[in-house]
Amino acid sequence: MATETSAQVLPYDEMARRHRIETLLTRAIIYALLLIGAAIILIPFLWMVSTSLKVERQLFEWPPRWIPDPVAFENYWKAWEQLGSIAPGLTFWRIISNTLFITVLAMFAEMFSAAVVAYGFARFRFKGRDVLFFIMLSTMMIPGVLTRVPSFLIWREVGLLNTYDPLTLPAWTAWGPAYVFLLRQFFLTIPREMDEAAIIDGANPVQVFFYVMLPLVKPAFLAIGVLAFQGNWNNFEGPLIYLNTTQLFPLILSIQFFQQSLSKEAPKWHYMMAMATMMAAPILLLFFMAQRYFIEGLNVGAVKG
Amino acid sequence: MGDPGAFNSYYPTFLRYIGTAIVLALLIYLTYQGLRKLGVKREAATGFALITPWLVGRILLTAFPILLSFYLGFTEYNILWDEPRSLKDPLFNYKRALSFKIVEFDKDERVSIAKLGQLQAEGPDIVRYRELDSVVIGDTRYVIAATDIYLWRAIWLTLRYAVLSIPLGMAGALGVALLLNQNVKGVGYWRTLYYLPAVLPAAAVALLWFWLFAPNRGLINWALGPIYDLTNSEPLGWFTDKNLVLPSFVIMSMWGIFGANTVILLAGLKNIPPDLYEAASIDGAGNWVKFRHVTIPMLSPTLFYVLIMGVIGALQLFTEQAFIPTEREDGWFVNWFLYNEAFNFGRMGYASAVGWLYAVFIIAITLLVFRSSAAWVFYEGAREKEAGGA
Amino acid sequence: MAKYLRIAIVLAMAVALLPLATSRAQEPVTLRITTWAGVDEAAEFQAIIDDVNASQDAFQIVHEPKPSDYYTVLQTALAGGEAADLMWLDQDHMPWAFDGVLLDISDYLANDDRDTANPDDYFPGVWQTVAMGEGVYGLPWIAQPVVLYYNKDIFDAMGHEYPNADWTWDQFKEAAIALTNEEHYGFSLNGWPPPYIWIWGNGGDVVSEDLAESPVDDPAVIEAVQFYADMIYNEECCPSQETIAEEGFGEMFKAGRLAMFMGGAADDLDRVEGLNVGVSPVPKGNATGENTTFAWIAATAINAKTEHPDEAYEALVMLTEGIHSWKIVSPRVSQATVEHLVASEPRKEANAEDIIAAVPYMRGFTLFPGYLEFNDVIWGDYFNPAFNGEDTAEALAPDARILLEDVLASQ
Predict the structure, then answer these.
(1) Whose C-alpha in C87, C141, C315, C332 is 20 to 30 A from the C-alpha of A236?
(2) What is the DSSP secondary-structure string of A148-159?
(3) Count of domains observed in chain C
(4) pLDDT digits (tens, 9 = 90+) for B343-360
């Protein structure tokens, strides 16, 4: 009897053991693959930071050195001093304030106007609304090549080339259809009773919008804020076309200018990596602080659309 | 173009910025009042008034430029001139962009420009056919000649880039998303990690990869050193080698795009109801069957979204190219090619014409992808409707 | 509420227009000049500007240096209507005159008897770069011949004789090969020095005098281009493209990695610290038998859209006069002397005679309306493919001729 039982149990144990090993093996493979992926993601990052802290002669050391010796923190300001030598007045602080000026103005206008327009599309019925909304979504497909030259000519005609106007003023017209779309989806989830109650209480539509609606869509509002900040911070084509006085350049254009001029002869990789790191740092910081909004903004189009 | 000083360059713009906001607010208000006077109901008037900023912006800053661009396509316009000049042959720009023909040569004959001929159109320049490519069949060489070979090379490069980078990027992202969906510990951290490159500014990514791919001192050629030694071959030139420009851009894009797609696809995977898998298990389905018949259909709307975004992004690549200078002969991405035609080579009219053609092309491809979606994208709403109908 | 809004918008508009209003009505007139001057050059140039500003009350000149990406920046500024009143242009960019962006100063010159404004005092080969078609579009301020700089230490270490004016191009090439070893290369080319040195020295030219033909398939031109193509990026004598990209072109000579290098006569290559450098005219052209060389020419031009053309012209003449006693080599016949050169640039004293000796043998480009496109084609379809080894000069020449003559015929 005992032998019989064990004869029955053993294969079962064996099966369980095999199953465990199999699971363990699968888990190990999964984690190994994830780790390889992580290495592929991280090594270039580390290389960027490592290069940015090297002195010039260590750039070309063979085999490459991962931890610089000495650690050349001074690259982070020397790079800008170098740039200042060919573009007088274009100091680090000037570049940062230029960048922030453009980014903050455009971001604010974009968020605010997107909210207003989304509110209009979401909460009120009017003739032609759905057609207009469809047109708005379709404008996402219009390639930039179509409007680049004429936009340049229009701004030239009104004499506002080489100012920040083309980069900030149009943001008031809700130029990001994706943001309008995202906010509209959120407005739609708010029960109509909320604003109707407020109106009965004597609030006008402006008050309803500011005191009732905006607080309710705060997560989405912040999500588009984060995306708009990122978008304007990284915007390259606009400044490239509209700005030509070097002192007006934002960060991204300054870096390109540095690469085009100072690095033409011999690339100063340590300076360029320092600049790239500084370009990336605020966005990475923002990402770590507001990760949830990034991912929210990223997913809304895919999942809700 | 002198330095106006920080303050002087900020405050006029700032005032006009405030002014624009006020004008638009006023516009909303006046539209509302006007519509009300016309007897429109309160709700409709408010709604329409609220979207006027968008409407005005799109008319002035999108529709009008598009029409202007269409007009410019029939003119010659150097950026240094104040006015466009009319062309003797209004279609000259379009002919210059699109004309191509096939010319036969003897197999060993040199392909001479004289024999390829010139464009029969009256324009500011004499435009000749140039060799784009050739095929030898028997004793004859068939030369494909075009009037703007750089445009065709740009299109060819951009298309190949799209065809390679989009599926590879999607497959990779799907793979990682599937791995992360296996009840991995600390999935949030992994997700953050994989998303990192997608947050980086394209400019920083381009500079970084330009450096990683540097032929003699780059990290990648160092890592591949043993392979070069083993096979006794020269280190690859990557961005500086005309045959490797495309793969280099594709590899770079994989690193950059990967993360964003992974996050989107992962969210899509999490949204698949577990009971569907359970039901499949009860039916005795294996992993592959589950993947093929549950995961893929349920994920297809997300895949579709990723695909559309990928197509639009790949066909309009610009910033990366600006930071990674390659030779025009080796191929530029179309967007960069057009920027240079307009702003550096003084052919704004031509760039407008080609811009129109390219825009139509992009929109056509996007619509094609949309149309194809009926065949493979599975919408839950549709499923419910079917179920309800049955 | 509408009332407040209306008041607010009027206020905002008024404040917005304020900066425009305050920038008007200034005495004297402010003129802007844009140049590619780097930090040191800008400081020296400022001294000349200060003198001009102090000597009269009609205008004040403000200098706006753009030391990098100069022509791209300038073209955008011209396109945007933002460019300065005066600008430096090298001969390659003088054809912008044909696009109507430069002011024709021939009427002013006719009524001006100062030497600086006298066309006859300029070398004809230099004057042709500003006098195009019917008009005159600027005043040249420099015409420096390309000369051969050599690193004496490398020559000494290798036991090689120094370059001299009697060298032929074949001797030069042999020397470049002999002076190449693990540590250094004999010479370096990357499109600079201009292949025209060899073409002209061989008795050829890329455009006929009547501007109708482009005889680039002439054996003399083919031979010259092939000579260049055989040396460029050929590691027997010269660094590869990759090496130049990584170490820098002029930087390599300064770092002692090149035995010979060609640069403009005014370059600072002969006063690099720790480097013992000599200067020689370029070798003798096979056909001319002279040290035919290329002249790097630059002029100051006036923006056609300037609001103050009279003052700008006055400033142009005064500045040019000042620059002629600063920059070497002055493009004027009366100033082509060792004394004037040394007075302008004392650091060139040791090599002044060699430089002045090179002056009669230098020349610039022939300019015409389609020049910029012509230049693109000749590099894109002739020089570059030959230099990159895609094909021989002889095979490329016939097609290049057809394309170049198309450009000439289009104008």
Answers:
(1) C87
(2) HHHHHHHHHHTT
(3) 2
(4) 988 899 999 999 999 999
The pLDDT score that the predictor gives to residue B102 is: 92
Interatomic CA distance for residues C279 and C296, integer angstroms: 17
Mutate to test the interface with B, among C64, C99, C399, C404 (most CBs of B within 10 A): C399
**DSSP letter for each residue of C117-129:** G-GGGB-HHHHTT
The tokens describing C170, both together, are 């074949």
B44, B66, B179 member nearest A146 (Cβ): B66
> For the whole prediction, is pTM greater than 0.90?
no
B277 belongs to a structural domain? yes
Splitting chain C (411 residues) into consecutive groups of 10 residues, what average pLDDT does each group show? 54 53 62 87 90 93 83 86 92 90 94 92 89 91 92 93 92 94 93 93 91 93 95 93 84 91 87 87 89 92 94 95 89 89 85 84 86 90 92 93 91 69
Whether residue B247 is found in the same domain as residue B365 = yes
Domain extent at residue B138: 100-146
**Domain containing C150 — which CATH number?**
3.40.190.10
pLDDT at A305 over 60: no
Q: pLDDT tens, A5-33?
A: 444 556 677 778 888 888 889 889 999 99
Those residues of chain B that have pLDDT short of 70 are: 1-3, 257, 380-390
CB B79 within 8 A of CB B343: yes
Query: What pLDDT shows up at residue A68?
Result: 85
Task: Specify whether the CB–CB gap between C94 and C129 falls below 8 A.
Answer: yes
pLDDT digits (tens, 9 = 90+) for C253-283: 998 999 999 998 888 888 888 888 988 999 9
Where on the phi/psi map is residue C57: left (φ > 0), alpha (ψ -120 to 50), or beta? alpha
CB contact under 8 A, A149 and B348: yes
In a domain, B306, yes or no: yes
Amino acid (one-letter) located at A171 = A
Tokens of C332: 């004027």
Give the burial string for C326-356 (b: 16+ CB within 10 Å, else e): bbbbbbbeebbeeebbbebbeebeebbebbb
Question: Is B82 domain-assigned?
Answer: no
Any idea which architecture A75-304 has in CATH?
Orthogonal Bundle (1.10)
pLDDT at B327: 83
Q: Is residue C4 part of a domain?
A: no
Do C261 and C301 belong to one domain? no
pLDDT of residue A2: 44
Judgement on whether residues C91 and C121 belong to the same structural domain of the protein:
yes
C271 and C397 in a single domain? The answer is: yes
Q: Does A139 touch chain B (CB under 8 A)?
A: yes
Name every residue in C having a CB less than 8 A away from some CB of B. 1-2, 5-6, 8-9, 12-13, 15-16, 19, 32, 34, 62, 64, 66, 72-73, 75-79, 82-84, 96, 99-101, 242, 245-246, 373, 380, 384, 395, 398-399, 402-403, 406-407, 409-410
Pairing between β-strand C131-132 and β-strand C362-363 as defined by DSSP bridges: unpaired
The one-character DSSP state at A248 is G
Do B209 and B312 fall within a single domain? yes
Supply the ipTM of this predicted assembly: 0.90
Q: CB neighbours (10 Å) of residue A199?
A: 15
Q: Which of B60, B52, B10 is nearest to A151 (CA)?
A: B60
Contact A243, C76 (CB under 8 A): no
Same domain, yes or no, for C32 and C47? yes
**Domain assignment present for B93:** no
With CA atoms as reference, report the closest residue to B196 among A44, C134, C328, C99. Answer: A44
3-state secondary structure C66-112: CCCCHHHHHHHHHHCCCCCCEEEEEHHHHHHHHHCCECCCHHHHHCC
Domain that holds residue C284: 145-294+366-410
Average pLDDT of chain C, as a whole number: 88
Same domain flag for C252 and C370: yes
How many structural domains does chain B have? 3
